[in-house]
Amino acid sequence: MELRPGLRLESTTCDTQVVVVKSPKEAVEIDLRCGGASMAPFGSGLDRQPRTAEGDAALLGKRYADDDLGLELLCTQGGEGPLSIGDEPLFIKGTKPLPSSD
User: Fold this and answer.
1) Low-confidence stretches of the chain (pLDDT beneath 50)
2) Model pTM score
C-alpha cells in the first residue's frame, strides 16, 4: 500500500487505528501490518482476522517510526496487535529532549 500523510488506517485483527504523519518521499509500496495482517483504509468494513504475530500492543497516542523508510505513524486507537512493516516490528519513536534553561 502506498502511504501518504493524513491517511487513516485500521487493523483487521484488533481495534488499532493509526494516522500516517510522515511518509517516504518517493512512492514506495509498504506492507504495513498490525497483528500479522495487513492494515486497511479506515472504514473499509473488513471482517476481523485472527492475530498471527506476537509482540507489544499498539499504544494510544504514541508515535511509531521507521527512520530508514522515513515513515511515522500516530496511534489514534490502541489495540492488542503489534505494528510492523512486513515482519520487522515498528518501535515507539523517542521523545525529543527539551533545551536546557540554564
Assistant:
1) none
2) 0.85
